[in-house]
Amino acid sequence: MLVIYLILSILMTMVINTKGIIWGGDDMVYHIGRLISLDSSFKSGVIMPNISTSNFSLIGYGINLFYPWVTMVPMILISLLIHNPVTAYYSGLAFFMFISFCISHYVMKKFSNSNTQAIVFSLIYGLANYRLIDVFSRADLAEYLATVFLPLAFLGFYETFFRDYRKWPLLAAGMSLLLLSHILTTVIVAFFFIIILILCWFMASDYQKRLKAVLAAILTSALASAVFLVPFLAEITYQKFQQLSPYVLKGENSIKLLQASLTNNANRTLDGNIYNIGIILLIALILGIFFFKSFNKTYRSIYLLAVLSFVMVMQIFPWSIFQKTPLNLIQFPFRFLLITTLLLAVIATKIFTDIFTNPDTMLKNFFVVGTLGIVMLGLWVVSVNGALHQKYLTAPDQTVNAKIIQSKSLYEGYYEQYSPMASQPYMKDIEGHIGYINGQKTVINVKPNGRFLTVKLNGLKSGTTIDLPIIKYRNSSVAINGQRVNLTKSFRGTVAIKVKQNYQYAKLNIGYHMGFLAWFSLIISLLTWLWLVLEIVFKE
Fold first, then answer.
1. Where are the transmembrane segments (predicted)?
2. pLDDT digits (tens, 9 = 90+) for 353-409
3. Residue ranges of the domains in the chain?
4. Under a CB-based contact definition with an 8 Å cutoff, are residues 503 and 480 in contact?
5. pLDDT at res. 162
6. Hey, is 488 helix, strand or coil?
7. 174 and 536 in contact (C-beta within 8 Å)?
8. Which ranges of the chain have pLDDT less than 50?
9. Is 363 exposed, middle or buried (0-12, 13-18, 19+ CB in 10 A)?
C-alpha cells in the first residue's frame, strides 16, 4: 500500500500544481513567509529558529518563537534539494500527504485490527474535503500538518482512557506533534477531549491507573515539545502580548453548511463558500442514523461525538458563553470540522466495510476499495477545478510564483500578533524602519545578513542613544563591530542601545541569542522523542 499512497499523494498535489504558482488561499502568504524565514535561518546555521532576519519587513519579528515550526522542517529540507520554491512547496505537501496516509493506516489498523478498514479510512480521511480546504483554499499549512497527526492523538486518547492505558505514549506522541504543528488545533483537541471525558467517563475502568497514565502522557508530551514550549513560555513571561487576532465566536448558517457539504465545495469564503465536510462525510452522517442500532458501544459514541462536533460549527451552538474564556483563541468555530472530519471518517469506514466488503472475498474487496479510491480522488479533482474557476483564489494579486518567493518581496502582515503590547501604537513606524538617534526620528536602513539584521552607521560618539526599528525580545542581542554590547527595551518595545565609545564606522548586528534554556530544551526534546519512538516500537 505504500506505493499506492505515494502515487495518490503525488496525484493530489499535481492536481493543485497546474500553473507553477501557489494559489491565493486565505493564509498562503503568511505561511510562505514562515517557510522563507525558516529556510533562511537553517541556511544561516541557526539550529532553533527564532526571529526572522530575512523577511517579515526586517523588524526582527519573532514568528518562530510563537508559531510552532518543528513539523515544517521536512519542507525546508526538501527545499534544500529542490531549488524551485514552488516545486519544493508542492513536494513538501506531497510528503505530508503520504505521511498522513501512513499514519491513518496505522491508527485504523490498531483501532479495528482490520487491514481493509485501515485502507478505507486512509482514503476517506486523506482525501476528505475539509482537509483539501485546509491545504488549498485556506492554505492554513499549520492546521493541515496538525490534521496529519490528529488520528494518532485520538488513538492515544482512546487507548489511555478506554482500552489499554499502557499505550499512553501514543497520546503523548500525538499531542506533542499537534503542539509542534499548531497551537490552536491543540487547544481545540484538548477541549474536545475534556468533553469526551465528561460524557463518556462512565465507560472507563481502572480509574487510578488511567489517571497515572494520562499524567505521564501530559508530562512526556511537554518534554517532547520543550524545544518549542520553553522559548515560547520564556517570551510570554518576559513581556505582555495582545491576544492573537481576537474574533467574536460565531457558528455557520446550518442550511448553507449542509448545502456546501452536499456540493463538496472547496472554494474560499471570499468566493461565497462555507467551509464544510464534503459529500462523502455528509452521507456518512446521514447513514449513521440508520446504522446506529447495529453499531457497538464504541461506534455509537464516535457517531454521537461526530454529530456534536458538527453542531458546534453551527449558529445554533451557544458560542457566546465561551467568548470570554480561553477557548476564544480558536477564532473560528468551523475549525471543529477537523474533528468532525476525523470522527465521520471512522463512521464512514465502518459503514462502507460493513456494506461492501467481505473477509472471504479478497478480489471483491480489492475492486470495491479501488473504486472508493477513484471516487475520492475524483471528488478531489472536481473540487479543486471548481475552486480554480473562482475569482479570489486565482486573482494575480493573490497568487505567488517562484520569482516572488525568491525575491522575498511578500508582505506577510499580522505583525501585531507577536509584537509586544508596548510596540502596538508604533507598528507602522517600526515597519517603516523609523528609529531614533539621540531622540531624533530618522529612517534607519536595515539589511538582512544571515542570522543577523545589520545596520551600518558612521560617526557615532560615546553616549549616543539609538532606538532601532527592531522588536526587542528576551534574548535579543546586539554586537557593534563584532563586540557584544548591552541593550535595553525602548518605550516602543524595540531594541535600544547607548554607545559607550566613539566609532568612526559602526556595524550593528542584531540577532537572538540561544541561551542555556534553549539548548537544554532542544536536548530534552530529542531524548524524549528517542525514548518515545523506542517505547512505541518495542511495545508493538
1. 6-25, 58-82, 88-108, 141-158, 178-202, 214-234, 274-295, 302-322, 334-353, 365-383, 516-538
2. 999 987 767 777 889 999 999 999 999 999 999 999 999 999 998 999 999 999 887
3. 2-148+224-300+334-402, 422-518
4. yes
5. 95
6. strand
7. no
8. none
9. exposed
What are the phi and psi torsion angles at 389 (to 5°)? -100, 10
CA nearest to 346, candidates 172, 155, 509: 155
Nearest CA-CA partner of 196 in 309, 333, 109, 291? 309
What CA–CA distance (Å, rounded) separates 11 from 9? 5
Q: Please name the residue that has the C-alpha cell 477537523.
A: 338
Tell me the CA distances in angstroms from 8 to 1, 102, 386, 527, one per residue in order. 10, 12, 20, 34
**For residue range 12-38, what is the model confidence (pLDDT) as tens digits?**
999 999 999 999 999 999 999 999 999
CB neighbours of residue 331 within 10 Å:
15
Bridge partners for 495 per DSSP: 489
* Global confidence as pTM: 0.95
Contact 39, 82 (CB under 8 A): no
- Write the single-letter amino acid at 527: L
Q: What is the pLDDT of residue 416?
A: 86
Residue with cell 475520492: 376
What phi, psi does 467 have (nearest 5°)? -110, 105
Q: What pLDDT, in 10s, does the model give residues 232-285?
A: 999 999 999 987 666 789 999 999 999 999 999 999 999 999 999 999 999 999
Coil vs helix vs strand at 493: coil
Question: What are the b/e assignments for 79-99, b being 16+ CB within 10 Å?
Answer: beeeeebbbbbbbbbbbbbbb
- What is the helix (H) or strand (E) element at residue 494, kind and residue range? strand 494-498
Average pLDDT of the chain, as a whole number: 95
What are the φ and ψ backbone dihedral angles of 356, each rounded to 5 degrees?
-105, -15
**CA 374-9-405 angle, 5° bins:** 135
Q: CB atoms < 10 A from the CB of 502, how many?
A: 12
Query: Which CATH number, 3.40.50, 2.60.40, 3.90.1690, 3.30.300, labels domain 422-518?
Result: 2.60.40
Please name every residue paired with 506 in a beta bridge, in sequence order, or none if there are none.
457
User: How far apart are alpha carbons 227 and 73 in whole angstroms?
Assistant: 13
Length reported for the chain: 540
For residue 57, CA distances in Å to 53, 396, 454 come to: 9, 22, 13
Alpha carbon distances (Å) from 330 to 184, 246, 319: 6, 9, 11
Residues 6 or more apart whose CB falls under 8 angstroms from that of 386 comprise: 265, 266, 267
User: SS3 letters for 259-296?
Assistant: HHHHCCCCCCHHHCCCCCCCHHHHHHHHHHHHHHHHCC
